[in-house]
Design brief:
The protein is α+β, with helices and mostly antiparallel strands and 174 residues long. It has one domain: Cytidine Deaminase, domain 2 (3-Layer(aba) Sandwich). The protein contains 5 helices and 8 strands. A hairpin with a 2-residue loop joins strand 5 and strand 6. The longest helix is centred in the first third of the chain and has 17 residues. The chain binds zinc ion (ZN). InterPro entries: CMP_dCMP_dom (IPR002125), Cytidine_deaminase-like (IPR016193). GO terms for molecular function: catalytic activity.
Length: 174
């Protein structure tokens, strides 16, 4: 496929909302509120302040109901977000199937949605997990798939695949 000349790009095509972007949001459950409070308590107890290294707390709930916390480890080389630390902590405690995740900022910043890297990791390693995040309708939970329409997907040993696992003919789809 060749790249169209710049003059052909000047007039943008009409856009229409995609069905896949109609993201189903769920009201928070009592268990979700407990998870938020857990993440908040972890960051409140362990943050080192506004300009600190540890500014975000996260918590995950496993399908067995256990809660596991993480806190970010900021570093310019790419230190992990709180969400990724929480995933590791859950795994270290033997929790393999996870139900929900949330991150809360320090200094009373409340619930903060996951960054793009976290979303990709969640999609690839914990498909179906519910992510609690601020939305236009307030704090709600949404399945990770709802946050990653038309996503790239990756798995160890397989690499990148079309997502969802419904292969698209690369020629027909151009
Ligand atoms: Zn992140």
């Amino acid at each position: 496929m060749s790249i169209p000349p710049a003059e052909d790009l000047a007039e943008a095509p009409a856009e229409a909302p995609a069905e896949a972007l109609d993201i189903p949001l769920a009201e928070l459950t009592d268990a979700d509120r407990e998870l938020i409070a857990f993440a908040r308590d972890v960051v409140d107890a362990n943050t080192d302040g506004e300009e600190g290294i540890h500014t975000m707390g996260a918590a995950v709930r496993a399908v067995d109901g256990t809660l596991h916390a993480g806190i970010n480890v900021y570093h310019f080389t790419g230190g992990p977000c709180a969400e990724l630390v929480a995933l590791g902590a859950a795994r270290a405690a033997g929790a393999r199937e996870l139900d929900a995740i949330v991150a809360v900022g320090n200094m009373g910043r409340g619930v903060v949605g996951p960054c793009g890297r976290d979303r990709q990791v969640l999609l690839d390693y914990h498909p179906g997990i519910r992510v609690i995040l601020p939305t236009t309708r307030g704090v709600r939970s949404v399945r990770i798939e709802g946050l990653m329409p038309y996503a790239f997907a990756w798995s160890p040993g397989v690499g990148a695949t079309a997502y969802p696992s419904d292969p698209v003919d690369p020629v027909e789809s151009c």
